Protein: Growth arrest-specific 1a
Amino acid sequence: MARAPVAAVCVLVCLGAWCALVSVVEGAARRLICWQAIVKCQAEAECNYAYGQYMHACEPVLSGRRTKCPSHCIASLVQLNLTRGGPALEECSCIDDEVCHKTKRAIEPCMPRTSSLGCTEARRQCDRDPQCRDYMSNYLLHCGKLFSGAGCTSACRQVIADMRRLPKAQLLDTCVCDGTERTICEYIKLKMKSLCFGEPTVADYNYDGSGSDDEDDDDEYEDRISKCPIQASVHTPCLRTKLAPC
Structure:
């Protein structure tokens, strides 16, 4: 009789392992090869346009001339990920294409480091704190123009100043953008620095490399990028930034 529970456990473990294997295989099957993802994107008008913007904005990084990612490159990544075919460019597989692998490595500086508290966890901690949660609601209410890059109102600046005095909310200011939220998170942090406080938008960014003239490029490119619509919700899932076209 004692063998029956053991056998049942073995069956459950084996079944779980099989389901996990099937999930991995199905996930791999759904991943496009990068050249396929590019062709699919180019067949869609919005994705094709956003892809062109991305290639132009991120060219200094993709070509290896710079290791710091300009803010307009990040903005173009946001726009590309908002299109239907954009996310597939991030998830695609290079297989044995060395040029594709090189491109993936080149775009890596556009990814923030995660040595400190991630913004996903910082937001969760804020959400569990009633006062911080109220401040976050006020932030979403008064900083709508900031999200689109249109400007920063005095009410928005006041909310941010109030949040910086609250320990739990301070984590949102110092956290490192990560996970599925990192692209728009970085975009908003850049706009908050430049529009609300007039701070440098690239020099303070947590990237390697020199690229001290990126801000000039940002000014030149600013009028050519579309603004990023962001749904005002504390729990809004945002988009990922690591794209690797071949």
In short: The longest helix spans residues 3-30. Residues 34-110 form one domain. Confidence is low (pLDDT under 50) at residues 4-29, 201-246. The two ends are 59 Å apart (CA to CA).
